[in-house]
Amino acid sequence: MSEHLQPSDYHFSKARRRLDIAVALTLMPIAFPAEKILSAYVRRVFNDDDVYFELEVESGNGLVSVKKIRTMYNDGPSDEEIGFNKDNPRIPNRTIKLIRDLRADELPQILQVLTGELSMVGPRKLPGQMLKYVEKTTDQDLYDEWRELTDQLPPGLTGPAQLSWLETDIRDKAVLERAMRLDNNYAVNGSLKEDLLILGKTAFNLGRIGLRLSHT
């Protein structure tokens, strides 16, 4: 990676941490009961108590476990085999698909923001299986630069890359490389203003997706 390409100091600042805490505390009164309701529903759908799973990903402080509500059966084609398509055949029904589309399966991560493990805005960190798929699919120099930049930052619940594929059902070379460039640019040029803009766009886009899906 070029010497001048280093993460912005903002990512390690008190201002970013204060924003994380403020947004997470604002969301918790809604997120906590919503998570309990979704967990109970998922328990009924899968007919067992295994309603959460954790993905281990790289972070600036080493490995971190990102917690999510379970939304897929364990049996069936792997994510890598189907190219990490959002329409995975292991998703049991339309309601679970809606939970995924609205990112509601990530509600447990809001508590992780409060503990400092995650950030509200940041690069989307990927588990080992998907990292191998991305490395195999994309330009090697871009991949190396993306890994070196983003591995220094905490995982984010949202970010420019996540926004770019909210409504994209495929994870092909073009989509992945565009997301990686957005992550790289955010890592280098991140700011409080940028984070506020991303959070606003995320809320707007998820609301729009929810309205569209409610009429289908």
Key descriptive features of the protein:
single chain; 216 residues; mainly alpha; two-stranded parallel ribbon; 8 helices; 53% helix
Number of domains: 1
- What integer is the average pLDDT? 87
Number of strands: 4
Strand order of the largest sheet: 1-2
Name the poorly predicted regions: none
Pairing-aware structural class of the strands and helices?
mainly alpha
Model description:
There is one protein chain. With 216 residues, the protein is mainly α. It is 53% helix and 10% strand. It has helices at 14-46, 94-101, 109-115, 128-137, 140-150, 160-164, 173-189, 192-214, and strands spanning 52-59, 62-69, 119-121, 156-158. A two-stranded antiparallel ribbon has the order 1-2. A hairpin with a 2-residue loop joins β1 and β2 (62-69). α5 packs parallel to α7 (173-189). It is globular and about 50 Å long.
